[in-house]
Amino acid sequence: MLKILSGNKVSELDQSFIKHENISSWQLMERASLAFSNWFMQSHGNSGDKVFVFCGPGNNGGDGLAIARQLFDKGFSVSVVLFSSLSNSSKDWQENFKMLPEDIGKFQFDDFDFQLADGGIIIDALFGIGINRPLEGKFLKAILSLNKIGGEKIAIDIPSGLPSDDLVEGEAFLADVTVSFQFPKLSLLVPDHVKFVGDLEVVDLGIPSSFLERFESPYYFIQSASVKQGHTKFHKFSHKGDFGRVLFIGGRKGKVGAIILSAKAALRTGSGLVHVWAEGSSEDVIHASALELMTEGEEVMKRIDDFDALGIGPGMGEIPEMVFEEILRSFRKPIVLDADALNMIARHSELWDLLPSGSILTPHVGEFDRLAGKSMDHFDRLKKAKTLAEKNKIYLVLKGAYTCISTPDGKQYFNSTGTKHMATAGSGDVLTGILTSFLGQGYSPFNACVAGVYHHGLAGEIASKEKVRGTIASDILEKIPESFLKLGID
Ligand SMILES: NC(=O)C1=CN([C@@H]2O[C@H](COP(=O)(O)OP(=O)(O)OC[C@H]3O[C@@H](n4cnc5c(N)ncnc54)[C@H](OP(=O)(O)O)[C@@H]3O)[C@@H](O)[C@H]2O)[C@H](O)CC1
Ligand SMILES: [K+]
Fold first, then answer.
1. Under CATH, what is the fold of the domain 227-486?
2. Residue limits of the YjeF N-terminal domain (predicted)?
3. Which residue blocks in 249-350 are alpha helix, DSSP H?
4. pTM of the complete model beyond 0.90
């Protein structure tokens, strides 16, 4: 798991890592710049496009100067645009300025005609995580001009103007791609900033994640290595009873499809036995959609404790509060709650107290705001999610790009997989199915959440490679097995 440090911890990290590796700060900057340049060469080859690097006075600008030199060495036509003099720039900036090849175009901001950069590749190295106030003066002017002209826009570490852990105030660079060092900064992961960040790439500086653990932070970025570890093993003598018996409750009032998506996703995630309690008349369609599914009626309440996990809510509509309460009172193992089950809790706050500890709630932003009240912005929403998870001893999976898992111990884990094409009806029902399946297979709620959101996103990525904007939730669930294969899990 990759720790996400706050901006003000990064210089501490740098100092400590420099000491540990016995290297200079310039060498660390060179590593960072090479990581960017290697990414650039891989994604752009030798496109022949002109590259313009806009360098501020700090170390982000220093990175820009090193990158300009490295790309020039690879044959690109490169110009740098400077906003500070040698004496009022950072130490490593000065070093890299002195190393600039003669044939690199060098402009001072005051003399630069921004139309020259129109249509080229624009690299933003004005400010990184050291920004401490809104842009103004020449910096604001430059960003406004860059945002107006055409060309590909790439931000180094963070788009200039964005603080690393807070909501933007005023203007910021509108990047097509942001290439962030070592870990994504928190503010790159919130929907409020998506127009500034564009696509997010994270490049490695070779700082081991165990080294990051030395620094205090409640935030993590989920990576494949930590997902691989937590899976159960199938073996020769395995039988269906080893992989859990799960029950899905929902799929009423014309929404039987929702619960079928969950149930089929559970089958594809490896559940041994999958039961569905939907409206009586839906039985035929459930059986027709998957021969492996079993249907139940209300008498299942008498046997509810026989199940290893429950997934409640997709397409459930409004069921009487009494029935919902009875389910919560009779089943005391962790359950997964989604959709109408969340709306039920939003309307009847006394139900919070009945949730088995370790249960998993999976709201999208709209459902979350109904549960927790309106938020000013996503940072505020994340704070509320943390409080709700801690207070109720539950796992709160706030769905969206970079789905965030808030845990009872006050930590927040952001998912790294997924695609824009997963914003489609039923996508969340598939996640409910995956999570319920993992709980039923005996995963801890934490492992179920981490593996669940990761596989859901990865299956979505695989599906959307073929189906692009035509991706539907059924495509996502059919790709769950490929997601396992991709991680080497059989
Ligand atoms: N481990 C790593 O990730 C590494 C990252 N590197 C890069 O370094 C930057 C951070 O560099 P830093 O020098 O700390 O900060 P910045 O380059 O972002 O800029 C800070 C300077 O800018 C001034 N400042 C701040 N806000 C404004 C503003 N709105 N207007 C004008 N000037 C501003 C500030 O000075 P003040 O005294 O004026 O407050 C600073 O001088 C990181 O993002 C990476 O790109 C390293 O290369 C290596 C390791
Ligand atoms: K930048």
1. UDP-N-acetylmuramoyl-L-alanine:D-glutamate ligase (3.40.1190)
2. 10-213
3. 256-269, 283-289, 321-330, 339-347
4. yes
